[in-house]
Amino acid sequence: MTSYRDILYRDYSSAFGEQKTYDDATQHAQYEASYDGLPSRKDAAITDLGCGKGEWLGWLQAKGYSNLTGVDLSPSDLGFARQQRPSGIWIEQNVIDFLEAHPASFDLLHAKDIVEHFTMDEFLRFLTAAKQALKPGGELWLLTFNAQSPLASATRYGDLTHELGLTPGSMAQGMRACGFTRIFVQGRHYCSTSRSGKMRRLLGKVIYRFARLMLKVRHGTVGTSCEIDFLCAEPDLFGRGIIA
Length: 244
Hints:
Layout: H1 4-9, H2 12-16, H3 24-34, E1 46-49, H4 55-62, E2 68-72, H5 75-84, E3 89-92, H6 95-100, E4 106-112, H7 120-133, E5 134-145, H8 152-156, H9 168-177, E6 182-188, H10 195-219, E7 236-242
Parallel strand pairs: 1-2, 1-4, 2-3, 4-5
Antiparallel strand pairs: 5-7, 6-7
Helix pairs in contact: 3-4
């Protein structure tokens, strides 16, 4: 019997039409604003899990990183990535199976907009496999939508393949349970430098500050931490899990 994943992942980006267009300049600007703390070594073993068309690895390649691998289930997206970046390693495989087959192999694992596609069991298996696939001192980076942000349901139900929503607390809970020794979770709200982007940023500051106040009314201080922002209301979460 054909599953929904067989149908929807077969040509994932194309099924979204213009919502999943490829634009290096736009994507790279978002990465510059969203990520810091990249490995100092340019030969660090870095893998992008759910790499899509290879935008994130292309950004790293432009920065001089060379030991790059992309893993994805979409043949069409990987075909595009191979065509655009023939020097990269592109693997068509379930990301959990890939991780379980490569223990202690990577310095950095990156997973953007992928964990929301997992069931709960898959998410915990993914975290466990990622922890085991990292070298000592390695890091897992997760970027996903923030389930406690206003209008989070628009993202949760905006894609038929979404299964899971995470808050800062539940993301940290999962990482901790699966063996990560240091955990950082913070909110992200990327806006471009265009006029409309600047307006979105300004309005966002007001909206997400009010939403933060509402969360505080509901939960109190929730064990304030400089590493985990339990009350963040920005639309995206960026989590880092580090192993000893």
